[in-house]
Amino acid sequence: MNKYRLMLYVMGQTQRSQTAISNLQRICQNELQNQYEMVVIDVLEQPQLAEDQKILATPTLIKELPPPIRRIIGDLSDTERVLLGLDLRTHDD
Questions:
Q1: Is residue 91 domain-resident?
Q2: 23 backbone dihedrals φ, ψ, rounded to 5°
Q3: What are phi and psi of 88, to 5 degrees?
Q4: Rounded to an integer, what distance in angstroms lies between the CA atom of residue 7 and that of residue 19?
Q5: CATH number for the domain including 31?
Q6: Residues facing 72 on adjacent strands
Q7: Span 49-76, pLDDT tens digits
Q8: What pTM did the predictor assign?
């Protein structure tokens, strides 16, 4: 199995940011076990990283590995949409 590299861009310690972080942690623990690296980037603290990735909205999740790169915008509360976006589900599942 490929190791997943997930970058979650949030803005500050808002409720929406906290919700996205906890949703992603839950999804990773349930679906990826120990096959992932999750990095949370606060765009207020590291604006250059957000600019480099052209982050226009937060929260934004970027799946860097395995290819292809995928982006998911929102608080990640729609688990099925997140799993589709991470290529962990297909539309047929």
A1: no
A2: -65, -45
A3: -95, -10
A4: 15
A5: 3.40.30.10
A6: 61
A7: 999 999 999 999 999 999 999 999 999 9
A8: 0.91
Phi, psi of 40 (to 5 degrees): -105, 125
Say how many domains are in the chain. 1
Nearest to 76 by CA among 68, 85, 67: 85
Q: Give the dihedral sign, CA 42/75/57/5.
A: positive
Domain that holds residue 62: 4-85
The three-state (H, E, C) secondary structure of 26-87, written as one string:
HHHHHHCCCCEEEEEEECCCCHHHHHHCCCCCCCEEEEEECCCCEEEECCCCCHHHHHHHCC
Token pair belonging to 63 = 């799946």
Question: Contact, 15 vs 67, CB < 8 A?
Answer: no
C-alpha–C-alpha distance, residues 12 and 63, integer Å: 21
Are residues 49 and 56 in contact, defined by beta-carbon separation less than 8 angstroms? no
